[in-house]
Amino acid sequence: MDAETLVRDHTVYACVTGSRAFGLATDGSDTDRRGVFLAPTELFWRFEKPPTHVEGPGEERFSWELERFCALALRANPNVLECLYSPLVEHADATGRELLALRGAFLSRRVHETFTRYAAGQRRKLESDVRTHGAPRWKHAMHLLRLLASARDLLRTGVLTVDVGDAREELLAVKRGEVSWSGTERRMARLAEECDAAVDRSPLPAAPDRRRVEDFLVRVRRDSARAA
Description:
Order of helices and strands: HEHEEEHHEHHHHHH
Strand content: 5-15%
Strand order of the largest sheet: 3-4-2-1-5
Shape: globular
CATH class of the largest domain: Alpha Beta
CATH architecture of the largest domain: 2-Layer Sandwich
Radius of gyration: 19 Å
């Protein structure tokens, strides 16, 4: 079974992510689509296994096989968790709806490490741009601020909110380069400190509910095998 068929015929969940999901879309913004497909269990019985992810079909579309998606979510991968919590869901079958109902099981205090580590890497790239070109890529700076604020609020409340809400105009001002780099750096540093301060008092558990997620995965694999 080719990759395009897996995505077309076996997608269980699909959503829009990126600027449109964040509430930061402007004229000309791309529509980033992400999805999860469930490869039929019988495909795993062959020497050649199904792919863990597929790019396309079409532009700005990327999908993960369910097991890979769950593994990344359990590790608190920022892009995958934001996909699970996107307010712009385009498709969810029975398995997809169950995945959405399970999404709280993926959340834990590990988000502090993964979100802030990712943010630190992005900040180093921005600093390199400033040294090389005299200015950062402002769009990336905007999204870094958004990510840090999202991590802080998740740690404080236990809820991942993707849409930036009232922070939209403030963040778009950064994207337009209307905020100084020094001022942007200070905001980044303050948000990182607020993330650090929120960890110990966070309502999130220390680790995700791996057993609950694994039980779900085994069950859907078994159901797929029975349907073959």
